Predict the structure of Amino acid ABC transporter permease.
Amino acid sequence: MLNSGINVLFEGSNFERLLGGLLVTLEIALLSIIIGTLLGILMGLLRTLQSRPIRFVLRLYLETFRIIPILVWLYVVYFGFTPLLNVNISGELTAIIVFSLWGAAEIGDLVRGALESLPKHQVESGQALGLTYGQLYRHVLIPQAVRRMLPGSINLATRMIKTTSLVVLIGVVEVVKVGQQIIELGVIKAPSASFWVYGFIFILYFLVCYPLSRLSKRFERRWQN
């Protein structure tokens, strides 16, 4: 029975469809990570300013993403803003918007934490040498901050890739949705199709996320010393 179930992976174009679904997953995650990183760096720098209103607003922005589930954000943007603004937003675009905003909030906090953890005397030494704020950030602070925030950023990227499985609930045909379609068509002939299809999806996510997890650990060990 189990052996017959594995055949569903190779019937027709099922195998290629699953890989195509994984590609959609990775495209959403990669675009979100890039946009989120760029916005997050800007937010992180703004959070190091002494302006209390700016710090309060950005802190509130971060907390909304930590408190409210990502699935609710997807529903709000996809089902809420579409009729409210009378615009047509695809599921893929909705996912990229929500994941980018989430990434920006988390990256911003990582940047802030990394910058604020640097010894104060480095800023004072740079100023004593006559460096401008731009030179100070470019040559002294940001290179060190990147080292400190990189492991956390890689972990965040891994979480974002895994969380993309939620976008199936707003109609995006990614790897989990393709798997569901294959199971629905093949479950009558092969009752164990769910085991093999979801098992294959499990392996795909593992192959993508495990190297990132190892890379994060490697950076942590290297820069701890």
Observations:
- The chain has a mean pLDDT of 89.
- Residues 147 and 223 are 7 Å apart (CA to CA).
